[in-house]
Amino acid sequence: MTIAAIRISDRMPSAALRRFAWGVLAYFIATILWGTIVRATGSGAGCGDHWPLCNGTVIQQSPTLQTIIEFTHRITAGLDLIFIVGLLIWTWRRTVQGHLARWAAGSALFLTVTEAILGALLVKLGLTAGSRSPLRPPFEALHLSNTLLLVATLAATAHFLGRRIGYRWRDVHITAPVGTTIGMLSIMIVGVTGSLAALGDTLFPATSLSESLKQDFAEKSNWLLRWRWTHPTIAILASIFLIWLLIRAVRRSGPWDNRGLSALVVGLLVLQYVLGALDVYLLAPIWMQVVHLLGADLLWSALVVLTMRMTLLPAHTR
């Protein structure tokens, strides 16, 4: 056995590290869901325009419910940073040079920092609670895009740590990069349009389904309401990419059996359509928004892993 082989075998990710990586992803998704509660309850201004302190202090005296909700979100987000730093260090120590998990974990740390910066800007610029500033939608869209990328890098980190072949850049070859990139971007756009639709529901709530439908077509309605149709429309178009990917996953014979993961993606996709319809019918109550977003995050995570399996293949499978 060569020295290089010994070094590689000695620096393979442990089961504990792999479980920790999946745990960090699960925790971050929980943080996202709590952030939805912050937005839906109008608690984004619960700490005033102070950041990272809450109302200028660390210890809150007689806090309101909105302050508790917002401050709890900040604490959980701070723990995210600690967990991801720990994930990066642990990954770096337990993997060899060029390991794909190193790149994914490093990207996750960078996106965590940008996530904090965007969150701080939303607070400092007053783009929270009931703010109807024209700056809020683009900032919210940018924030969610960063969040989706962060979820993707965490899911990719956990996936790469579990690989036993094709885990270094020099050991993989890339397939269908253009189609995959376009498809994943289309899925991200679905998420962004969904967040803007949810923002419109929060800022301009309807009392009935008929009133909600009238808002979509009324000339005097805010553009967030008149553009809600883009979310289901783009979601249907993005399904074309999902169908293409799933067909490739089922037909391709490679180092991984993708049938189980493909079935999970299909199930989550169907569930999302059902939850989306219920969200509209029930006029987007908070609990429904949280459940719908949870389904979206699970679908996105599963889709990222399936895409990594289909796109970054071990070099010997050419």
Describe this structure in words.
With 318 residues, the protein is mainly alpha-helical. The chain contains eleven helices and two strands; from the N terminus they run H-H-H-H-H-E-H-H-H-H-H-H-E. The protein has two domains: 11-162, no CATH class; 169-318. Strands 1-2 form a two-stranded antiparallel ribbon. The chain crosses the membrane at residues 20-37, 71-91, 103-123, 143-162, 174-199, 229-249, 261-284, 290-312. It comes from Acidicapsa dinghuensis. Pathway: Porphyrin-containing compound metabolism.
Main structural class: mainly alpha
Distance between the termini: 27 Å
Enumerate the strands of the largest sheet in spatial order, edge to edge or round the barrel. Answer: 1-2
Could you tell me the strand content as a percent range? under 5%
Q: How many distinct helices?
A: 11
Shape: globular
Helix content: over 70%
pLDDT averaged residue by residue: 89
Whole-angstrom Rg: 21 Å
Number of domains: 2
Number of strands: 2
Order of helices and strands: HHHHHEHHHHHHE
Biggest sheet statistics? 2 strands, antiparallel
Q: Low-confidence parts lasting 5 or more residues at pLDDT below 50?
A: 1-7
Keywords: Cell membrane, Disulfide bond, Heme biosynthesis, Iron, Membrane, Metal-binding, Oxidoreductase, Transmembrane, Transmembrane helix
Protein name: Heme A synthase
Subcellular location: Membrane
Pathway: Porphyrin-containing compound metabolism
